Fold:
Amino acid sequence: MNKRAFTLAEVLLVLVMISGLMFLIIPNVNNTKSNIDDKTCKAYIELVNSQIQSYYLENGHYPENLGELVDNNYLRSTTCPNGSEIDYQDNVASINEP
Structure:
């Protein structure tokens, strides 16, 4: 009999331990991704507001809409990286929440 091999019980015990750890870790990964998306969007909103001020300093007036910033290469997109639309009112950008 080979003394160096693992028994079936040992292999099953390791598999149960690994699946238990995965059960604990996977839900936290989803929460972390959502949290990161929210923080990324807030950071992008700050960038948009900075670009609005930059546009004002260079042109002497605020842009009519965010599309004007995209057309003049101040921004690449009028949406957050997570897909949320950005609202633009009173020369300030914010997240357009439903």
Summary: The two ends are 68 Å apart (CA to CA). The mean pLDDT is 87. The longest helix spans residues 8-59.
